[in-house]
Amino acid sequence: MAKTPLPMKPTGWFQVAWSAEILVGDVRRMKYFDTEMIAWRSASGQVTVMDAYCEHLGAHLGYGGTVNGETLQCPFHGWQWNTEGRNVCIPYEKHPNKARRIRTYPVAEHSESVFIWYDADRREPYFDVTNVLTGFDDGRSAADYYPAYGHSTLFETALEIHPQYVMENGVDFAHFKYVHKTPLVPEFTRHDFEAPVSYVDFTIAFEDVPAGEVNSGVQAINSGIGVAATKSWGMIDNRTLTAVTPIDDSTSDIRFTVWIGRKPHDDSDQPTRRALEYAEAVIEQFQNDIHIWKHQRYSDPPALSPSEFKGFTAIREWATQFYPADFDCRKATTR
Ligand code: FES
Ligand SMILES: [Fe+2]
């Protein structure tokens, strides 16, 4: 185990749950970015993620807090807080306490997932988290895929992993042969690290095809450092979402979701057996990555080969934009 030297409070979008885990009326406890938080879904369906402690006398709202229409009621003295974290009712006073507010986090909900925007300086979101099913601008939508939750997801908690380790997979052509047992080394056809949302495309062959003949590939859209969406072509139609969310200064949760393309004219919510088997194989490949990441020590500066230099340098430079301004990667030490 090796604690990462990289900052564990990066800026960006981070998945904190799958949508189905927070039904109307649910209050869910979570800890991310060293902060006790709760997520609750109001009667109208809106998810709010906020700090867990009541601004009155500090009850933890995740232990007995109840959803009341569009507000959350504290279990201690019944004060009610709205979806903006504002106090809207003190049951035994004429007026609410307008001055006090519980910190809330911007929420995005799509791709069967709930994301929060985290920024240590509390800036508003300045980029979006890409919808994995519609975001590749190819006319596809959720209707073209079997639902993933309950069928093809992976959750691992409290691993000594930094989100950047996972993003570095997107430039790491050499690991495919060893970690994923692909016969050919993938070829990157696009590396675009110009903006907070970055793009990586590569071709890959999982079957033995004559060298130079490519039969499949992957496109990836990284929405900041916490969330990566992929679309595959040439193999069974699938999409994946990889999300790494820091818990404290050394550990993160990983969520991985796989959607398999529907068989034509199949409206079922239940994926076919073949789809499930395929999703399982994709998850197994991802577990091979996790096995490396969770025992890895961040190497800085790394011993890169000539053909690795450009990709790794680009992604590590790109990553620094999500870290506090005073973070100096040259001073980050791993020993
Ligand atoms: S502590 Fe929440 S209402 Fe008193
Ligand atoms: Fe990998």
TrEMBL record:
Co-factor(s): Fe cation
PROSITE patterns listed in its UniProt record: RIESKE (PS51296)
Pathway(s) of this molecule: Steroid hormone biosynthesis; dafachronic acid biosynthesis; Hormone biosynthesis
Annotated catalysed reactions: cholesterol + NADPH + O2 + H(+) = 7-dehydrocholesterol + NADP(+) + 2 H2O; cholesterol + NADH + O2 + H(+) = 7-dehydrocholesterol + NAD(+) + 2 H2O
Record's keyword annotation contains Lipid metabolism: yes
Enzyme class: oxidoreductase
InterPro entries: Cholesterol_7-desaturase, KshA-like_C, Rieske_2Fe-2S, Rieske_2Fe-2S_sf
EC number(s) given by UniProt: 1.14.19.21
CDD domains: Rieske_RO_Alpha_N (cd03469)
Membrane-spanning ranges: none
Keywords linked to the UniProt accession: 2Fe-2S, Iron, Iron-sulfur, Lipid degradation, Lipid metabolism, Membrane, Metal-binding, Oxidoreductase, Steroid metabolism, Transmembrane, Transmembrane helix
Chief place of localization: membrane
Recorded GO MF terms: 2 iron, 2 sulfur cluster binding; cholesterol 7-desaturase [NAD(P)H] activity; metal ion binding; monooxygenase activity
UniProt domain Rieske: residue ranges: 14-116
GO BP terms: cholesterol metabolic process; lipid catabolic process
GO cellular component, one term: membrane
Keyword Nuclease: no
Cell compartment(s), UniProt: Membrane
Assembly mode: Homotrimer. The two-component system 3-ketosteroid-9-alpha-monooxygenase is composed of an oxygenase component KshA and a reductase component KshB.
Protein family membership: Belongs to the cholesterol 7-desaturase family.
Annotated protein name in UniProt: cholesterol 7-desaturase
Organism: Antrihabitans stalactiti
Source organism phylogeny: Bacteria, Bacillati, Actinomycetota, Actinomycetes, Mycobacteriales
